[in-house]
Amino acid sequence: MSRRRRKHRTRSRPGTSPGTIAVDPEAPRPAIRILGYGPDDCVEREVASAQDLRALLGRWPVLWVNVDGLGDAAVLAEIGRLFAIHPLALEDVVNVHQRPKVDVYDAHLFIVMRMADDGGSEQLSLFIGSGYVLTFQERGGDCFEPVRQRLRGGKGRIRAASADYLAYALIDAVIDAYFPVLEALEGRLEEVEKLIFPSPDDAAVSRLQQIKEQLRELRRTTWPHRDVVNVLLRDEVPFVARETQVYLRDCADHALHVTELADSCRETATDLMGAYLSSLSNRMNEVMKTLTVIAAIFIPLSFLASLYGMNFDRSASRWNMPELGWAWGYPALLLAMGLVACGLLLWFRRRGWLGSRGAPPG
Length: 362
Prior knowledge:
By secondary structure, this protein is of the alpha+beta class. It folds into 3 domains: 149 residues, Beta Polymerase, domain 2 (2-Layer Sandwich); 110 residues, Magnesium transport protein CorA, transmembrane region (Methane Monooxygenase Hydroxylase, Chain G, domain 1); 43 residues. Helices cover 49% and strands 14% of the residues.
């Protein structure tokens, strides 16, 4: 899935009448594809227009209609009339900022989920009705190909089951699609960890910040999926058979696992950021310690150099720097300065301020 992430924004103006379909002018036009099946056959085809769907209703025990693109209000309205979709639900389909949720209507069950894609997520609107499943996606490309392969090959019990089982398979595919995304983020965190611990790197912390933002978005989108599945597990929810609820329990476990994995990655990212800051602080402390040692060594040397740079006249007084007249005065001063520097270095090392002798004695 290589799709460009777009910002979610409300299409309808504040105060607009409920049920108004206000599409995004930049959204792609709807592409309709049906997959009708039963225990003995499976038919998959493109549908040219919403009107052509009417002749396909009732041909198979289960009909899956998938719509990619939300850029034509007339097509969406026609599909809404054909499947008796409530106007409020159809409005939520085109307003793609919805939080994952479940709404119960007389003619159908309306489910909103967030489907993972590169760099973010897109809204998936799913309707379960009598003998059909209707899905709306913001654009082409999804995580449902394994489900389509099972339908084409007749694998498992999906072709013999009703529409609610197909809806379960789609929901499960949406939740499971987050695992590769989180595993990829875990791999990126391991790469960042290798960059941080040898030596702090500004590029590493920039990558870490990007990962934290993605994890924040992932947690915001994955957490409500648990509530969605838990609602579907209730006995009073229509269009979901008790037999399908058994499979939805496994789906609930997957949703919980995804949330826990996202939380674990967030904690790892937070720990790495703390490790980066701690490493940066330790490196700064080492630099300051080195500079302090150098400054401490040059303090007595600077004193000696300034002392003998005062140039008092020796002829005016016998106390005015008699060393200036000594034959070995200059070498003696250099030797004294060297001994002072070496003595300070030895003393700093014995105190544990240099090298790796451990903490300084108390």
